[in-house]
Structures are given as structure tokens and as C-alpha cells.
Amino acid sequence: MTDLPDATPPGMTEIASAALRVRVADLGAEMQSLTDADGREFLWDGQEAWWSGRAPILFPIVGRAPEDVISVGGAQAEMKQHGFARRAVFDLVEATAQRVVHRLTDSAETRAVYPRAFALTVTHEVTEATLHVSAQVANTGDLDLPFGFGFHPAFRWPLPGAGGAHRLILDNGGEPALARLRDGLLQEARMPSPFRLGQLWLDPALFEADAMIFPEGAGAGLTYRAETGPALRFAFDNAPFLGIWQKPGAPFICIEPWHGMAARQGAGPEIEARPGTVTLAPGDSARFGYSVTIA
Length: 295
What we know:
By secondary structure, the protein is mostly beta strands. It is 1% helix and 43% strand.
């Protein structure tokens, strides 16, 4: 029997409300599709010619480490940019019509590069026209657990059905200082904000020097919209840092709430020394999240 063209592929779970349909893969607990009731796709489709990611989960680091090497409790190991969660197969632990939950726990493979016990639980849930994405990191071992965490969703640019120039509008109307990367590592210097009265008009030229990073002052929410057509409204939970990235000229924009950033230029490999690192005592947990509403 042949599957229908819109059948959910193996290793993928679909959840839906009357207004949204979302697909999430077991690989990386990564969202693969976000469509509205009219069938318009808002999530980037992962064309490898540009960037194969769609909405990766960043753990246990955000960004790069010096020489791609991290150190935890004095033990050093190679770790690629953004950590290993995005390349790991999560266990599917719950699936209902509107909610799907995935979990990744430590294994011999993870402990070889990150010698700590953990449970990372990622939940996607739809309520009317809003998608809620949350993550809980729990320390299941008997040693402190240092880590960074981030979301990295990519959305279509231009938005489907939109017309005119696209912009980001901060809820707080702020003009947060800009930080940049050099060779993938965070520069200490802060530059003038590209926001004006809370608004940033998007242009591929903004990303010729890599991602734009806002370590403070971006606030807890923003709107991504064009002059006409639909808008995406974001709210962030326990994610005080904001990254905005596009591969220059690509048809997507990444809106990335983080709790953690790339290592500073000139810093060592210790996770504990990275900006925004969270350290959990044995038995403790921390939650991070964002929501996006199609309006």
C-alpha cells in the first residue's frame, strides 16, 4: 500500500490544531514543518545548498568552542558548533493530537565527550494559532552540570503571502547593543545597535559579518513581519540572549533565543567560563522556551 503524499514519514510526529500543523522529527527533536490552515509553510525547508538545518536544538553548548574543544571538570573533548543534541536521535515519550514530547539522556557516546548525566526533554505543543516549544534540562547525576542551551528555528524570508520589506520589532522598543563573532568566537566589543526605536529592517548585508548577537536588552518578545501579509509573534522564556542569522542571500531568517553563547575570543575550553552558562546541582532542573503565533 502506498502512503498518501502528505503521510507522516517514519521518525516524524505530526501535531495539529484548527489553525496549525507541525511536524517534529525524532532526529534532534527538530521541527520540520510549520503550516497554517491555508497550507502556507512558514518554516525553512532545509535545502542543503544553503543550510540543512530547520530548527535545531542547541545543547550542551551554543556556538563554537575554541578549536572545537570543550572541557568539563578538567576532561577535554572535541565538540562541534552547537553541541551534539541536534545530531542525536531522541526517544519519543509522548504523542497526542496537539502535543509531542521527546527526550535525550546521557549514554556512553555522550559521556565520552561530555562526562555528565542529564535528561533533555523537548516539548512541542499547538494551541489554536500558537506553537509552544519548551525544553527542560535535568541533572540526573551526582556532579554539577554546566551547559548552554538554545533554540535555532529558521523561518521563511520572505514570509508566505507577504509583501514589501521585512523587519523585526522588539516588544520593548529597545536598541540593544550588537556583538559579533570572529572565527566563530564572541568578540568582547559592543557595537551600536542596528535597531531603531525597536525596529530592524532586514537586509542580507547585515549578515556578511556572520550572525548578529544581542547579549542584553533584546527583551522577551518580538514580531517578524513584512509591510503586508502574515506576521510571526514570538515570546521567549528564560532565554535572555538573542541571535539573528541568515546565510547572506538565503531565503530564511533564524530567530534564536538562547541561554548561552559562543566562547569568548581568547578564552579556554571550559564550559563553565562560557557566557550565559547554566550550572545545575545534582537533582536540579531548568526550563527554557519560546512560542510563536501566526497572526
